[in-house]
Design brief:
With 295 residues, the protein is of the alpha+beta class. 40% of the residues lie in helices and 15% in strands. The chain has 10 helices and 8 strands. Strands 1-2-8-7-6-3-4-5 form an 8-stranded mixed sheet, with helices on both faces. It is globular. It starts with 19 loop residues before the first helix and ends with a helix.
Length: 295
């Protein structure tokens, strides 16, 4: 499994109990630099990083921080989740952004949305809902194999990072949003040897058929569809669904952290804006470059 912020999205590789040291290790591993060229795009309120790549400019802004946050800690304790909660933050932020016609917003509008997302009170009910959904499934799975699962295995499974398939299941479970949510996922087929429990079954069923070569997969919802990441296929899928590609709100698997990203509004000089819950190196991640090329 893998939870974003300190977890690797459903990445089979990070299938282990969460410890501070492992969180740091996962972050280092997940942030693969593209050695981008520095530049000075216009600054927007809440921005903490920006990078210029050959394919465009990426801007990163902060939302409420998932760590050292009493509200998040209380929710994690209530639902018995791991301390790394980016797997829940990404769906909460995406759901809010998916109610906004971001392409028509002014800079002031965008800054107001960012300010709204920094207030944990606005995210709390959505985090609570996502945690309840995922942990209900986890407890149910543990109960279904209670005769063969040891107490230590149960504890580790319940506290593991959020996995890709869990994020996917939750998004598909939700009513369709005004503007579509998509999921840019790392292909976890190479991680299969380390996968366990439901995650292993999901990788075998959903990702192994693609083989190990494609590094990224795209998932759309309502109806659910998973395919190799390519601009051509994305455009074909969007046309079939009557979707404007730049209207999509993206949950992004950074292979050690989960974020949300959107095509930047016309008033912004950037091409993509990432909404991040821990001030990560998302702008330098290979998934950010992939998203730029898709948009």
């Amino acid at each position: 499994m893998g939870d974003a912020c300190s977890t690797s999205p459903k990445k089979v590789s990070p299938k282990k109990p969460v410890h501070d040291a492992r969180l740091e290790e996962a972050l280092k591993r997940s942030m693969a630099s593209e050695d981008p060229v520095k530049e000075e795009p216009k600054v927007i309120k809440g921005e903490f990083s920006n990078k210029k790549l050959p394919s465009g400019i990426i801007r990163a802004v902060s939302v409420a921080n998932q760590f050292q946050n009493p509200v998040v800690d209380k929710l994690s304790e209530k639902h018995e989740t791991c301390k790394a909660t980016c797997g829940y933050f990404c769906t909460a932020v995406a759901r809010i952004l998916a109610t906004k016609d971001l392409q028509t917003k002014t800079k002031s509008d965008i800054e107001s949305i960012i300010e709204y997302l920094t207030d944990i009170a606005n995210l709390e009910p959505l985090l609570d809902e996502a945690m309840k959904f995922t942990m209900t499934d986890r407890f149910g799975y543990c109960d279904s194999i209670k005769d063969t699962m040891t107490a230590s295995d149960r504890a580790a499974y319940l506290r593991d990072w959020v996995a890709n398939y869990e994020i996917s299941d939750f998004i598909q479970h939700l009513p369709a949003t005004e503007f579509p949510i998509a999921f840019l996922r790392h292909n976890q087929t190479p991680d299969l040897p380390d996968a366990k429990h439901v995650e292993r079954l999901q990788i075998v069923r959903e990702e192994v058929p693609f083989g190990e070569d494609p590094p990224f997969l795209i998932e759309l919802f309502h109806p659910r569809s998973l395919f190799v990441s390519s601009k051509k296929q994305l455009l074909e899928e969007c046309e079939a669904r009557s979707i404007e590609p730049k209207s999509i709100v993206w949950v992004v698997d950074l292979n050690g952290h989960f974020d949300v990203a959107v095509a930047a509004p016309l008033v912004d000089d950037a091409d993509v804006i990432f909404f991040d819950s821990m001030k990560s190196s998302c702008c330098e991640n290979i998934a950010a470059k992939e998203l730029l090329e898709l948009l």
